[in-house]
Model the fold of this input.
Amino acid sequence: MALLFRSDIDSPAWWGDELRALVPDLDFRVWPDTGAVAEIDTALVWRPEPGLLAGLPGLKAIFSLGAGVDHIFADPDLPVGVPVTRVVDADMTGRMTEYVLFHVLRRHLRHDEYRDQQARGEWRELAHPAAAERRVGVMGLGVLGGAAARALADLGFDVAGYSRRARDMPGIDRFHGADGLEPFLNRTEILVCLLPLTAATAGILDERLFDALPDGAWLINVARGNHLVEDDLLAALASGRLAGATLDVFADEPLPASHPFWPHPAITITPHIAAISDPRSIAKQVAENITRLRDGRALINVVDPGAGY
Ligand code: NDP
Ligand code: OXD
Done:
C-alpha cells in the first residue's frame, strides 16, 4: 500500500525522508506520479485539487499537512466516510504562540509609532497601559488559540476567549456561542482570530464585528483569509474603528501584487508563516497514524466532518 503526497508549498523530498526514517517500508509517492492509484491507501495533502482524492478508490485516511482542514473539506467530491486527520503539534503551537505574542506586544508597546518617530528623529515618550489593563480577546480557544491565550495571560494581559461551546480555562474570561460574541467583542482592544474556517465562521470578521469592538482596536488574523471581509476591514481602518491589522492569511495566496493591503500603512502582512508545518516534528504523528491504520487501531487527531474542524 502507498501514501500519496500532494502540496504546492511543502517539500516532498523533506517529507519523504522524514517519513521513511520512521516507516522504512513506506511506499511514498508524490503527485502527479501516482503509479497504480488502487495501491494508494493514504494521502498527505495541502490544498488538494477538487476531485483528486475521489480518484483514489482504496483511500482509507486523509492526513492534512496543516492544523486546518478547510482546504480538504472545500472539495465537493471529497470521499464520504474516509477519516480526515489534522496536525496537532507542540512545535506548531509554540510557533503560533510566538507570533501572537510578538504582534500583541508590538501593538501594546506602540512599537510602530516609535519606529515612525525614529524615522523623524523624534524623541517622545508615548503612554501605554500596564498589561493588566490591556484587554486582548482570542477567537478560537482550541489547541492554538488556547495556548496563545494562556501565554498572554501569563504575561499579565487581561485575556478573554471565544469558542463555540462553553470551555473552562482558568485565568481567561470565557465567552461562547452566538450570545457570547458581542460582549466578548465589546471588551476586546486587541482581537486575535484563531478560528477554523467553517460554514459558521466564514466572513465572521466583518463590519458588524468591527463595529462591536472599541474604537481604535487592533486585529490579528492568523486563521484564514476567508474569515475576513476585506472591504469591511479597509472601511473600518478608514473610519478609525480599527487602528491597524496584522494579517498572515489571505483569501487569495500569494497576495496579488496589486492588492490594496500591500501599501496600506495600517496593515502588516506576513506570508502565511505564523506557524509552519515542520516535518521534523509533524512526521511523527503521520507515521503513528500509518502504523495505527496498518494495525487496525483508531487514528489520532481525527476531525469531526459535521463540525468541519
Ligand atoms: P482547534 O480545532 O483546536 O480549535 C478551534 C477553536 O475554534 C475551538 O475553540 C472551537 O470551539 C472554536 N470554534 C470553532 N467554530 C466556532 C464557531 N462557529 N464559533 C466560535 N468558536 C468556534 O483549532 P486550532 O487551534 O488547532 O487551529 C485553529 C486554526 O488556525 C486552524 O483551523 C487554521 O485555520 C489556523 N492555522 C493557521 C496557521 C498559520 O500559519 N497562519 C497555522 C496553523 C493553523 P470549541 O472549543 O467549542 O470546539
Ligand atoms: C495550517 C496552516 O492550517 O499552516 O496548519 O495554515
Summary: The radius of gyration is 21 Å.
